[in-house]
Amino acid sequence: MSERSLMYRYALFLALFASAAELRAAGFAADVATSPVDAVIPLLDLVLDADEGTARECLGIVTRAAQNGELSAERLAALREQLGPRLNAILGSTDHPLRFDAALLATVWQDHEATRIARETLANPEAAGGARIVALQSLIAGSDEHAFADAQGILNDGQNAVDLRQQVLGCLGRLESPDVATFVLAKLDDFEPELRTRALELLTQRPEWSAPLLAAIADKRMSKDVLNLNQLRRIASFDDPQVKEQFTAIYGALREGRDPDRERLVKLMKNFLEAVPGDPHRGETAFKKVCAQCHKIYGEGAEVGPEITLNGRNNWDQLISNVFDPSLVIGAGYQARQLLTVDGRVLTGLPVEESDQRVVLKVQGGKIETIARDDIEEYKVSEVSLMPEELEKQLTKQEIADLMSYLALDRPPSDPAAKYLPGAPAPKR
Predict the structure, then answer these.
(1) Cα distances (Å, whole numbers) of residue 224 to 83, 155, 221, 384, 416
(2) Are 79 and 111 members of one domain?
(3) Which end of the chain is less congested by CB atoms within 10 angstroms, N or C?
(4) Cα separation of 114 and 298, whole Å?
(5) Can you give the pTM of this predicted structure?
């Protein structure tokens, strides 16, 4: 690439730089993964001399591509050889504004000083939660031998925020060690409801983690109803004889499509809810337990499925149908995808991006999973909603009544102006 061409691309890069979305539109992220390294390195080198914000965003794009496996081992080695000296100079300057950003990338290729900085950040309770998480992601991508132990330390410390520990659990999906299942299963009863939900999502992503989980269920150490239908479908998809035998012994054959009996259940639930009044204040707790992993309401929860403050709750009948028969009508953009990675991990989520280079899914809990196309062995569109059926198995009958009373209000229950949807039964007095 000529110097003039390179400078033109650099000028275009700066002109378009306003957001990560515009960077992708300009093709920069694709260039990092697919263009000749000799063409990309000079551009990266130039950008490091740009303003701090531009340089940070550009380094972030390269780092995320490296963390997610979008860069082949050969490309990563070439980046290290040609860009490494420049990053080493940044790492050697303790007051350089890009030091941590450079460390995140260099940690992936196992630079000693960069890894030290990443581990120091991860272990620092005063560091921002986002910085600790990206540090862990780089350590895992760089196969750091201490990453799992450091993650365990964060999960064992109840003083750490629930949100931080949720994200740490999400990061562990990239590991392949059976020790992950041993640790998470042992901690399951100690976790808050939000963490327990995320932990079960993690344990059902790999057959070697699902096997001890199924054993615990078979031994009656936990209820078979602890897993939702999406998690059961993932386990049923594993091509592992032991897991298949365990699964069949507990659950039998699993239905793939929508359950036609859901319409009958909707009627039964409507009659039940008219007879059993709910408490909307307690319903907020039930919402956080089973719904907030995918839905946001009144500013709380994760945005995976639709934001339901103003959607899907026009009247009581619609609300009951959406909750107890979620696959009856699947809105545009909410048809789930399931993929199998080459290392045996199974993920279910909603598509954020589907390109020749990568698939980006938003999974339960709001976590974004980016998988390089070369790392995907199977990829299919689900016939059913990402929102699992059989919610009634995840809650007690009173919790169901409380949840539905909470969802039937047009405002939070603490708001004196809150009113019930047309047709909704009276609340508990």
Answers:
(1) 52, 25, 9, 21, 40
(2) yes
(3) C
(4) 41
(5) 0.77
More confident residue, 337 or 263: 337
| Angstrom distance (rounded) from CA 365 to CA 176 | 21
Task: Tell me if 77 is assigned to some domain.
Answer: yes
How many of the other CB atoms lie within 10 Å of CB of 310?
Answer: 10
Instruction: Tell me: do 32 and 8 sit in the same domain.
Output: yes
Can you tell me the distance from the alpha carbon of 378 to that of 341, in angstroms, rounded to the nearest whole number? 7
Residues 115 and 132 in one domain: yes
pLDDT digits (tens, 9 = 90+) for 293-332: 788 888 788 777 777 777 767 788 888 888 888 776 666 6
Q: Determine, yes or no, domain membership for 284.
A: yes
Is residue 273 domain-shared with residue 344, that is, in the same domain?
Answer: no
The domain that holds 356 is classified in CATH as 2.30.30.100
Calpha distance 150→85 (Å, rounded): 28
Give the count of domains, the chain: 3
- Do residues 57 and 129 both lie within one domain? yes
Q: Which of 145, 173, 206 is the last residue of a domain?
A: 145
As given in the structure block, the two tokens for residue 277 are 């009044």
Q: Up-side HSE of residue 54: CA atoms within 13 Å toward CB? A: 19
Q: Report yes or no on 151 lying in a domain.
A: no
One domain for residues 369 and 272:
no
Which amino acid type is present at position 273? L
CATH classification of the domain holding 76: 1.25.10
Tokens for 70?
A: 């979008």
Q: Which helix (H) or strand (E) holds 339?
A: strand 335-341
Q: Are residues 60 and 99 in the same domain?
A: yes
Does 88 lie in the same domain as 71?
Answer: yes
Is 237 inside any structural domain?
Answer: no
User: 219 near 183, Cβ under 8 Å?
Assistant: no
CB 140 within 8 A of CB 108: no
Range of the domain at 355: 335-385
Residues 125-175 have pLDDT tens digits of 999 889 999 999 999 999 999 999 999 999 999 899 999 999 999 999 999
pLDDT score at 296: 83
Tens of pLDDT, residues 169-228: 999 999 999 999 999 999 999 998 888 888 999 999 999 999 999 999 999 999 988 888
Say which residue the tokens 């050969």 belong to: 74
Q: Which residues does 49 contact at the CB level (< 8 Å), separation at least 6?
A: 55
Distance from C-alpha of 2 to C-alpha of 25, rounded to nearest angstrom: 23
Cα dist from 110 to 72, 86, 93, 119, 144, whole Å: 15, 16, 19, 12, 8
Q: For residues 132 and 65, what is the distance between their CA atoms, to the nearest angstrom? A: 18
